[in-house]
Structure prediction request, 110 residues.
Amino acid sequence: MDCEYLIVITGVRIDPLTLYRIAMSGRVAFASLISAGAINVARTDHQIVDQTNDLARRLYRLRGYAVAEGYRFDKATHPHEVEAWRGACEAQILLTGTDPGDALDNLDEE
Prediction:
């Protein structure tokens, strides 16, 4: 993994080692960051979908692929793009307890 810092879904800069530790310890570590006031998770449905697409774009780039800025992974049909979207959704659920599918459903109802 590169040494660059990642802007994780919440907008907090987290280095790759810390991100790995958070992922390995699951929601407990993330919950402790929230309770400490280090992370603000209040986001609109649009922000959740946009951030999940941004994360999917980063995951896709890690595989060596690229798409145009603004590409909607939530509408993807190619298996690698769908996999990037699913990975980003899993990260959202693990790290924030937010399901991007619910946000998409809410947007469809608008």
Notes: The radius of gyration is 14 Å. The helical segments are 16-25, 27-35, 45-62, 79-96, 100-109. The beta strands are 6-7, 13-14.
